[in-house]
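I am writing to request your help with a piece of structural work I have in hand. The matter concerns a single protein, recorded as an amino acid sequence and a row of backbone structure tokens. Could you please explain, in whatever detail you think fit, how the structure tokens follow from the sequence? Thank you for your consideration; the sequence and its tokens are set out here:
>
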Amino acid sequence: MVWIKKHFWEIALVILLFTIGFYFRLKGISTNHSFWSDEAFTSAIARDILIGKTSFTNGISVLEYQRMQIISNLISFKLFGLSEWSARIPSVLWGSLGIVFAYLLAKRHSNRGGGFLAAFLFTFLQLNLAHSTSCYYLFCRQKYCTCHCLGNTSHII
């Protein structure tokens, strides 16, 4: 509890940036953009697993480099039903979590100011916002790599 009181404004600013970033990303998927071919393919695989057209292991092994996206879409389809919105919401969540991970990683390797700069850029950069609203595997992989770097930073410096 003392740690939270000591770092209250720091935590509050990161939560504020997360909330703003989540809002912008959620607003971005409401315009209902059409799927690119690889987005549609991963969503179709998740849909086929959900409706029983293919088994989980067969569906996951089709695209080895997009397993996390297929699993994320599958969970989202189970929770929210089959729709384009539910296919894109995992990317919104992954992209929003990236704000927190960017802050933690930059703070670890520089200072609080560097962490806030990284979180700010991750929140508001247009390219990042555009990719966070697509049903694309890169954001799952980016968050995985960021978490890995947070856990294993001795080899980075």
Remarks:
- The chain has one domain: 8-151.
- The mean pLDDT is 82.
- Residues 73 and 152 are 28 Å apart (CA to CA).
- The longest helix spans residues 84-109.
